[in-house]
């Protein structure tokens, strides 16, 4: 694999002209592999080697410019295979995979921002993103303006300055499940000449492909739906333009945040079944969200597939399935939320999401708790005391509903 990779170089490159664009997401996910010369195994073997032999000193620059491998930090065959598959699903000009979702997001910030630059980001967002922008990068002279999650894109526009270099959003957002209108967001970035970046982890590339709306960088924590089994940690960035891909590739190599061969192999295996898993996540979540919405101990439910979601029309416009993530406000404040999550049997109390198991967490005391956000910051982000975040798995939906019902019986209001 060249360090200046041509993303089209895959097992699907020999299709007749125009045929690739006709392929379904399922075929792209299961059939895309990077090409190796000669006899090729169906499943790419895990390449553990940290370094690669050369026949002459001239090979070094040739490999950097053309094809092959030099050193594990610069790339490996297993990561390349996962990149090919993700890029095919996302429809980008190139994809890079990283050691975690935050490694991907942090590397993008370091690559495309410098002291004196300005960022506009929604609030709330993933807690580590909030920490990175609001506290870590702030020390190095990068300023961030926060706009309400779920706001009209005009709120971003109103806050643009001459030094604004990045417009950042999540959709659906963590943990409130508000949506960002990708079409309008992409148009704003293009019209203003400002880089746009969207974290679509909660949707997965199965339900939403940000690049087709004009977004410059699509980010995902591959730990979640792309991996799909809660057994790896990875992240990815997909780019609309090859130029930005090349720039990020250089930074990725220097920062040392490349995905390991083992995790690259595991990630590729997960990607091959995303089109089978995601419809079940979506169906289960819709059924459970409808149940929770009708329960007398629930104040509100936020799920993009419910017509009660404030941005249901946006969800219908840009999502091809509403994913498996639900935000639920349990009555009784913090104690109500804690009572609910601590009295479940099938659903497991754990952070992360997107695996085959149903996971639940309480943002006010866990992911967005005091180690990341103050009480005032949570209040400003509308992260309410009784809010719980649920990642619906692949269990039987009726079994999960009975489990949720028993736990809600324990909530005292």
Q: Please write the string of helix (H) and strand (E) elements.
A: HHHEHEHEHEHEHEEHHHEHEHEEHEH
CATH architecture of the largest domain: 3-Layer(aba) Sandwich
- Structural classification: alpha/beta
At the fourth level of CATH, the homologous superfamily of the largest domain is Type I PLP-dependent aspartate aminotransferase-like (Major domain)
Which CATH C-level class of the largest domain is it? Alpha Beta
Give the overall form.
Answer: globular
Q: Radius of gyration over alpha carbons?
A: 21 Å
When the domains are counted, the total is: 2
Describe this structure in words.
The longest helix has 20 residues, at 274-293. The protein has 2 domains: 20-271, Aspartate Aminotransferase, domain 2 (3-Layer(aba) Sandwich); 276-409, Aspartate Aminotransferase, domain 1 (Alpha-Beta Complex). With 413 residues, it is an alpha/beta fold. The chain has helices spanning 25-31, 59-65, 77-90, 101-112, 127-136, 154-158, 182-192, 204-207, 242-255, 261-271, 274-293, 312-318, 333-342, 375-380, 397-409, and strands at residues 94-98, 118-123, 143-148, 164-170, 195-199, 217-221, 235-239, 298-302, 325-330, 348-349, 359-361, 387-391. The protein has a 7-stranded mixed β-sheet, sandwiched between helices. The protein has a 5-stranded mixed β-sheet with strand order 8-9-12-11-10. It is globular and about 75 Å long. Strand 4 (164-170), helix 7 (182-192) and strand 5 form a beta-alpha-beta unit.
């Amino acid at each position: 694999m060249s360090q200046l990779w041509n993303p089209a170089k895959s097992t699907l490159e020999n299709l007749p002209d125009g045929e690739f664009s006709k392929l379904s997401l399922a075929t792209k996910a299961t059939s895309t592999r990077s090409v190796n010369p000669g006899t090729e195994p169906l499943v790419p073997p895990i390449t553990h080697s940290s370094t690669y032999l050369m026949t002459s000193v001239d090979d070094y620059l040739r490999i950097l410019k053309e094809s092959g491998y030099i050193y594990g930090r610069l790339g490996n065959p297993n990561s390349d295979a996962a990149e090919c598959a993700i890029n095919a699903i996302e429809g980008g000009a190139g994809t890079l995979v990283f050691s975690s979702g935050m490694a991907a997001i942090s590397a993008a910030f370091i690559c495309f921002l410098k002291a004196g630059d300005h960022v506009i980001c929604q609030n709330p967002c993933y807690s580590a993103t909030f920490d990175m922008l609001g506290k870590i990068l702030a020390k190095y002279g990068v300023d961030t303006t926060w706009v309400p999650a779920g706001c009209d894109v005009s709120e971003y526009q109103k806050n643009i300055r001459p030094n604004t270099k990045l417009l950042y959003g999540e959709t659906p957002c963590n943990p409130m499940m508000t949506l960002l209108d990708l079409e309008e967001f992409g148009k704003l970035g293009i019209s203003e000449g400002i880089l746009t970046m969207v974290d679509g982890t909660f949707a997965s590339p199965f339900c939403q492909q940000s690049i087709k709306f004009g977004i410059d960088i699509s980010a995902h924590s591959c730990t979640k739906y792309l991996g799909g089994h809660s057994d790896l940690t990875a992240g990815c960035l997909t780019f609309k333009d090859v130029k930005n891909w090349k720039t990020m590739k250089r930074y990725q190599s220097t920062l040392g945040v490349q995905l390991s061969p083992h995790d690259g192999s595991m990630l590729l295996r997960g990607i091959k079944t995303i089109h089978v898993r995601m419809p079940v996540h979506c169906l289960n979540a819709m059924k459970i969200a409808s149940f929770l919405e009708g329960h007398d101990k629930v104040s509100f439910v936020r799920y993009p597939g419910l017509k009660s979601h404030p941005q249901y029309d946006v969800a219908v416009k840009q999502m091809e399935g509403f994913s498996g993530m639900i935000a639920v406000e349990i009555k009784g404040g913090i104690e109500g939320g804690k009572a609910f999550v601590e009295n479940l049997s099938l659903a497991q109390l754990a952070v992360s999401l997107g695996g085959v198991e149903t996971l639940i967490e309480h943002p006010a005391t866990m992911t967005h708790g005091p180690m990341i956000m103050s009480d005032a910051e949570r209040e400003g982000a509308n992260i309410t005391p009784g809010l719980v975040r649920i990642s619906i798995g692949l269990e039987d939906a009726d079994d999960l509903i009975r489990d949720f019902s028993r736990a809600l019986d324990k909530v005292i209001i």
